[in-house]
Amino acid sequence: LSGTTCVRIEDCGCSVESGRYYMNGESFYTSTCDRHCDCFNGQLLCSDAGCRANEKCGADEDGRMKCLLPTSSCKETPIRKNIKLPPSCGVRYVDVGACPSVTCPSSNIFDTRCCGVVDRRMEEVDCGNGETISVSKVTRCGCSQCIKQTITVTGKVYGLAADGSEISLSHGIVFRNNRSAATTDVNGKFTLNVDSDVDRLVLTFVDRFSRLMTTTKILEFKRLGGAIHHNIRVPRKKEVTQFVSSERGNFRPTSNGRNSVLTVMIEPNSYFRKSGVSYNGRVRSSITYIDPRDVSSYLAAPSDLRTDDGRVMRSYGMFELDFRDFQNLELDVRNIRINMLASEVGVLSEQRQMRLWSLNPLNGLWYDEGEMSLVSSAEGMILTANVALVQTRRLLNIDVAAPETCYTKVRAYGSDAFNIWDQVSYVLVDAVFKEVSQNRWRNFGSALTLPESGGCMRVFCDVADSNIYSATFTASLNAEKSLDAATSSGQDPSIIGVSENGLSLINYRRSDDGGVSHDTTSFTINMPRNNSATHSVGPFYRDQFDCLTAPVTHDHFRFSLKASALYEFNTIPIDENNIFFTWQNTPLIWWPRPSQFRSCYIKVKIVGTASPLVVESKNTVGTRHDILGQLYGIREDSSISNGVESAACIEFKCSGVSLDQQMDRTMVEITPRGSCTRGAVKTLLSTYHSERNSVAEQLSTGSYRMFAPADPLGHNYGIYTVTTSDPITSKQLSKGRCMAGTSSTTSTVMQVDDNMAVTFNCNH
């Protein structure tokens, strides 16, 4: 018997020492998850394994050991999910339910199953004004085959010139695992796909023209699928100086005209070619220094300041050593001494903990190169270190590694009501940690908020005094929307999200606290003392797994989306930031195919008033007979005024073929709110519909109706269409082109007079 099945002897499975039996083809982890084994033809084939940093080894529902993700299980009963109904409806919110964004247990690691919608029903909501609106409600969840997920990372790489203007990394190379993974375009932009089994995305950016420093960055990405965009700043490379190899080198790097806190000394004749042969001749050197006293320089700093054994670091400065011969070939350097004045170390206890570290560009981790000894000199007490060889790791860092690492919980919400059911996925939370007395940064990091879970930020928790270090947090969505931090006015725990006892330890304050600034997008706390840093109910935790699995009722810090005129309603609710777990195969879904996402925008001009107006697009089934006239969704946004007139870029549902191979031409109705009359329609757009016998009946002079074009029209029609593998990226590009009024470039500034589809004449 193999399990409960009678098989031939050669088809028997494997027995292990614990007495457990595994059938042929099954796989499992050992008791500590440090080994993964496959049962193949009665023999065990095992290899080294181990859990990722955010996982914990434990037993699943069947008692099998595996690396458990910090998520809830897939229960049949949906979790609560409220959506906002259109403004015309008297009911503001309705609970439509949702399924947890989790993978399901499986004995086969190659057969990943996901929690998703099994049953749903259409529900009519009485708006109280004689109207009803239909919405799909999830009634049962279950495990099924996962939708094929595409993980994409896009970015724009740039540095800053002396005058503050941007220097794009034009035609640069993006390395991953020592291989070219992508190249940047003329504007410094790149795109690359990421495999689902990647634990840590480490990219190195190289400037072919040597204007910007070669920089290694650790980038967050959506592990459950989807695209994320990063604005990536890298340091400007220091200008080249020349000297003879037989001379003693004595360098004091500068940053923004300010001398660094360190000196670099190199003995004569210490330069070697890659072959190991000594080099004699003229040397071209460039030492780029990243100065923590410049509080914004952390934005360009490499890596995420973590040691190879996982400890958090506190930096006193980074510097890149670049030495070359006159043919521009790299030279290795031996016999280097690094000195730093001990008086620069504001925290006296750290003087004897200081060490020199080098960055490994393959994994983005820092490796110990030796201690910084405290010695007496003519300049006073200095910290000094000797480096025998600078070769492949050319970026050095003077740091103290914190002996303890903790995690703090941050959540993002759709509004400042901070409703549990209104959490926002994949918000990028950034933090910078500063030494209060010296006003310089010591560490930085970032984390993404996960579906229903929030984000966990790595922090140090070995602080002896809560007045030594502060941490400032900011949050953004899709690299373009800054979120508001919870207000510190009144120190209300129900708003900030942290209990009164916790607030008393951290001095929470938002950036507008005191009325000096109107900025509301960040908050600052003092890092609590080590004996009071962590608590079983947050917001600080000793263990990352405990932080990620902490319920929403625990203490946590909060951000919320800013109030906006943009409104989106879908009959089939969907989270575009978490598209692959919330997509449903039904004809009324806004995005008919999960493999490609085509977004469409129409440009509308408002004349007769300088005031901005809200413009609506109502999208219904236009030609498919079995669901004719039913609602896909509604979009609203405000027009943008130039002081005389205004324009709006409004999304509408593209026409297309659904997964059941049924074609529909969406009926789109564009209506400005106000006393408006339809004016001119773009001639090319009218001709397009006329030639295809797709002219829509105009039911009102205050609106414009059309069948959504089946073709990907461009700016000459006032229609802007983009297709990508991710809905967020598709919409950003399409709307950006619409605002620019061209199909070739994007803009965040509305060009009111360029290439609109329809004009409305509106009264004040």
TrEMBL record:
Residues 567-763 form the Cartilage intermediate layer protein 1/2 C-terminal domain. Pfam families: CILP, CILP_8th, CILP_C, TILa. It comes from the Eukaryota. Its main location: secreted. Transmembrane segments: none annotated. Residues 13-67 form the TILa domain. It is found in: Secreted, Extracellular space, Extracellular matrix. InterPro entries: CILP-1/2_8th, CILP-1/2_b-sand_dom2, CILP-1/2_C, CILP1/CILP2, TILa_dom. Residues 148-239, 405-561 form the Cartilage intermediate layer protein 1/2 beta-sandwich domain. Keywords: Extracellular matrix, Glycoprotein, Secreted. This is Uncharacterized protein.
